[in-house]
Amino acid sequence: MLKGIGMLLILLSGAGLGFSSVFQMNRRLRELKNLRRMALLLENEIGCAHTVLAQALERTGRKLDGCAVFARGLAKRLRSGSGSSMEVMFREQAEEYTRNWELSQRDFELLCQLGMHLGRESRKVQIEQLQLFEKELEQEILSFEKTMPAKQRMYRSLGILGGLFLAILVF
Fold it and tell me: What pLDDT digit, counting tens, does each position of 54-65 carry?
């Protein structure tokens, strides 16, 4: 009886690990799409509304749900004028909030590259950088969506089979 319950718990924990990995993949995809939306909204605020970056970030933060805290925090840092460069403030803000995100290191570096060109270049260059960021994010999203179903099946299967293997091995 106890042996059966133990085997079942091991099997369920293995399956839980597999499904947890699938959940992380879905979360990363959602966050990449939120970043793309943030870039599009920033591009519209800077290009069409002709707002300064701090105000554009604040307005964008009000319209977002996923990256809102990041955008508002960056706007607050810009308004405080801590004396740091935009690149440093952007990286610090990204580091602070990516701890809670499921972004890869490549995604993080892509985000930080955007910070190198915002705020100190002309409006035209900022818009071009935002468009470039959007295109790179779009490519990342497409390649991730392409490989995602196979990886999700693999993670689910490995979780279940790993749990089954461990249950058999232990008992």
Answer: 888 899 888 888
